[in-house]
Design a protein that fits this description.
The protein has 392 residues and is of the alpha+beta class. It has 11 helices and 6 strands. Helix 1 (6-45) runs parallel beside helix 4 (103-142) and helix 4 crosses helix 8 (292-306).
């Protein structure tokens, strides 16, 4: 699609600044939780600043896949809201230019953004997820405390499950400890101790957990016998190198798989299994979410023009509500698709079809100067609020 006119190039140029600003803003919002978790690790476990930025970088592709469609919608909406408020849309109409004539730059911008999102979804997410996990394993190997969390069962280490009620980072001590050791197939052990401390082993991959005043319960599978032993001090040794190697060899989750791996699994996997359905959903999601840019971009044009009497913040609110509707439809598609109630192709592409059809419907009404009553009511409400504010 060629952009021959000055108007087309002007609109395309106007779309870029709000897109970048929205991209940065939403990225910051989405990464806030990740930043807090990584900062907690840095402060408490002396992880380097370089590791912090690498973890953020590896997290970005996953969030960008969702943020790019949202940023496209908001940038188109805010651009046409400004054009309408500045009476530029009225001037273009007076010059004989139809609203449909303004669509090509929006479609080109949306398609380019969709391709960028597809790159993130198809290549960026698997790369980022694998790199993040590899880096996290290295961090855990260098500091065993990172792998432990309060009041959670941790089964990251092959054959060993931990539960710690309280972790005292200052004294490097643990309280109310439960350990289930099944590394020996013939002898299963359960260790309970009220207190323990962590010490470094012979190398960076080994640690010693010294437990105090606890109990060991052992079950001899072959002899069908149970042994209970109390101790004052017991050193529990853990070799992280072997455990982490086993973790890295575990089967990948659907979101960690590359496009080639997803397709290969669909060819060789059990078509009746749950994982087969989940893989099929993931494959369609890799393409449906990026191409939501086109549906949401078209929808944002009549939303921006129809909200011309409102302030920019109100226009952003309308855009967020529209994206929330898309996200609810996407969530419903995921739920029904994973349960088998809907075919994966319907579950993943239905939100795009619905939002695209809504955008076309609103575009036709707006182009023929028949906006929905919703916009008129919203504009009247905005004018009343502005008058009340000026009087106050």
């Amino acid at each position: 699609m060629k952009l021959n006119s000055v108007v087309h190039r002007y609109i395309l140029k106007e779309l870029i600044p709000p897109f970048v600003m929205n991209l940065v803003f939403f990225m910051f919002v989405f990464l806030m939780r990740q930043i807090l978790e990584i900062t907690h690790v840095i402060v408490n476990y002396q992880v380097s600043i370089l590791t912090f930025f690498l973890m953020l970088a590896f997290s970005m592709p996953y969030f960008l896949a969702y943020i790019i469609p949202m940023s496209v919608m908001m940038s188109v909406l805010l651009t046409f809201l400004r054009l309408s408020n500045d009476n530029e849309i009225v001037a273009l109409k007076a010059g004989g230019i139809s609203l449909y004539y303004l669509l090509p730059p929006v479609i080109v911008f949306s398609v380019l953004s969709a391709l960028l999102g597809a790159g993130m979804s198809i290549y960026g997410i698997p790369w980022g997820q694998q790199a993040y996990k590899k880096l996290a394993l290295e961090v855990v190997q260098s500091n065993f405390n990172v792998g432990l969390k309060e009041r959670q069962f941790i089964d990251s280490f092959d054959g060993v499950t931990f539960y710690v009620n309280k972790i005292d980072l200052k004294n490097n001590s643990l309280h109310d400890i439960y350990i289930e050791d099944q590394r020996n197939e013939k002898l299963s052990s359960t260790i309970v101790a009220p207190e323990g401390r962590i010490f470094a082993g012979e190398d960076k991959y080994s640690f010693i957990l010294s437990l105090y005043k606890g109990t060991i319960n052992q079950v001899d599978v072959d002899g069908r016998a149970v042994y209970a032993t109390k101790f004052d001090t017991y050193d529990f040794r853990l070799d992280l190198k072997g455990s982490m190697k086993n973790i890295s060899q575990r089967a990948k989750k659907e979101k960690d798989m590359s496009l080639e791996e997803l397709i290969a699994y669909l060819k060789t996997g059990d078509s009746q299994g749950k994982k087969y359905l989940a893989v099929k959903m993931e494959l369609h999601k890799r393409f449906s979410i990026p191409f939501a840019c086109i549906a949401l971009g078209v929808l944002a044009v009549p939303l921006g023009i129809g909200s011309s009497a409102t302030r920019k913040t109100a226009g952003m609110g309308i855009g967020l509500i529209a994206f929330l509707l898309y996200y609810l439809l996407l969530s419903a598609g995921l739920v029904f698709g994973e349960s088998g109630s809907l075919p994966p192709v319907f579950g993943m592409w239905m939100p795009n079809v619905i939002m695209g059809a809504l955008g076309i419907y609103l575009m036709v009404r707006t182009a023929s100067d028949r906006p929905l009553e919703m916009f008129s009511q919203l504009n009247r409400l905005a004018r009343k609020l502005l008058r009340l504010r000026s009087l106050g």
